[in-house]
Amino acid sequence: MHANLEPTMAERLKERMKEKRLRQIDISKAIGASRGTVSKWLSGDAEPNHEYMLRLAEVLDVHPDWIIEGDNYYATYDDLDAMENALKEENRDRYINDLKLKNNIPYSIRYLEELYHNFCEDRFNEMQQKIQRDYEEDMETFEEWSKEPDDLGYLTENQRKSANFLSNIAKVAGADIYKTIYVTLEDDSMSPMIHRKAECAVDTGKQTIKDGKVYYFKHELIHRIRILHKNPDGGLLIRSKNKEFGEETINTSDISKIKILGWVYSWTNIDTW
User: Fold this and answer.
1) Domain 2-118 adopts which CATH fold?
2) pTM given for the model
3) In whole angstroms, how far apart are CA 200 and each of 4, 90, 113?
4) What is the pLDDT of residues 92-129, one digit of tens each?
């Protein structure tokens, strides 16, 4: 009589792992659970939560309800779920390559998505921190230069010509060369006026908004270059030259999220080979 009883969840997991030739450590790596947690599932001392249940089903190539109910399960997933999972699977190789994972474990695609999201978030934060460090270093450099504005004796002839050229541009524009930093536009938002990868000269001494001028500013964690307009209600209109980027309206309640870093008074549109 005992032989006819439905196997327990732990027994089903162990049997399926044996069929798939997966060890406990493989399951742990494939779904992001600790070895201790997986051990409790396999001993019957605990059961996976909903998210881990879905990840286990992906790795073991079974329906989630089978893990819970056994062979008498009733499938609740429809074709839309299968289609969504198939679309996610198309990104598997990219996730594994970018995350530098060995492709010898059948990772849960849900777990890979989580890892990749965290990976991209970390890279974004690192990039923003680098931009901030570069900005602060540029400010320190120009503050040092401003102490002895006429002392160019330490420069080579070409460097002196470049310094004079940049100084003349700032003078014509009405900008302060000693408060100028140079930043790179990293997107196509200002195309065709300012090309992607153009070097932009920013006068950090001019942070008052004049309608229709281009500014370098920080929007929460993101550094941006856009055209700004003041709205009558105290808010802000952010415009791009590229129509695909559209316009953004910043309400007065969110205006504190914007920090103007300077006026963009010139730029170099580089033609790539």
Assistant:
1) 434 Repressor (Amino-terminal Domain) (1.10.260)
2) 0.47
3) 76, 39, 36
4) 888 899 899 988 889 999 899 889 888 888 887 777 77
